[in-house]
Amino acid sequence: MNFTTTLGLTFATLAFVLSPGPANIAVLITSARDGFMAGFFLAIGEVIGALIYLIIAMFSLAVLSSAIEPVMIYVKFGGAMYLVYLGYMQFISNSALKDEARQRRSPLNQMLVGLLINGSNPKLVLFYLSFLPLFIDLNTLTLPVGIQIVFIIGSTLLAGISVVCGLGQQLSRLMRHTKMAQRVNRISGVMMIGVGISVARS
């Protein structure tokens, strides 16, 4: 890949990752509630889920995508229900944010939630199949170039979502006051429930 293609792919991916969507909302809420690292681990899970479908799209593994789709339906709805549950628990929380309340879920748990958000959406394959040809010819794709693409998109996704984690951490300052925390909890709870519904409908 030449410099121009690499730069174009990087900026296009960055624009995509910074656009509003369920994945960003989940990271924002998690970072605000449980701290930067909690949101970052959630983001890692989301990136892993996105890269799985990127690899499937790059190497034209449409058969694999079709094979796992029935299983992913159950995973998708299970994950959606869990996200709705998290949103409900956030909504009914009346407490202000305290440092000792952070990181109540393990990093692995956060990563699994992130993986559910992006990994349960096989339609990402279709997105990548329409997105990648703008920069490369999938018919002549080689393994070294494929590895470069995975690295570029993966690192750009993670960098972009890290910005969202930082915004969430700034939002956490508002949650140290009980009245403001109640408002933020209700708003973020509704948003997380919306993420769950979005995952179920995807």
What proportion of the residues form beta strands (DSSP E)? under 5%
Number of domains: 1
In one word, what is the shape? globular
The residue ranges in which pLDDT falls below 50 over 5 or more consecutive positions are 98-103
SS element count, helices: 8
Please provide the ordered H/E string of secondary-structure elements: HHHHHHHH
Describe the structure.
- The chain is globular and about 55 Å long.
- By secondary structure, the protein is mainly alpha-helical.
- 77% of the residues lie in helices and 0% in strands.
- The protein contains 8 helices and no strands.
- 36% of the residues are buried.
- It has one domain (3-10, 22-201).
- The chain has helices at 3-17, 22-34, 36-58, 62-92, 107-119, 124-131, 143-171, 178-201.
- Residues 98-103 have low confidence and may be disordered.
- Helix 2 (22-34) runs antiparallel to helix 8 (178-201), helix 3 (36-58) packs antiparallel against helix 7 (143-171) and helix 4 runs antiparallel to helix 8.
Entry keywords:
202 residues, mainly alpha, 8 helices, globular
Could you give the topology of this structure?
Elements: H1 3-17, H2 22-34, H3 36-58, H4 62-92, H5 107-119, H6 124-131, H7 143-171, H8 178-201
Helix pairs in contact: 1-7, 2-3, 2-7, 2-8, 3-5, 3-6, 3-7, 4-5, 4-8
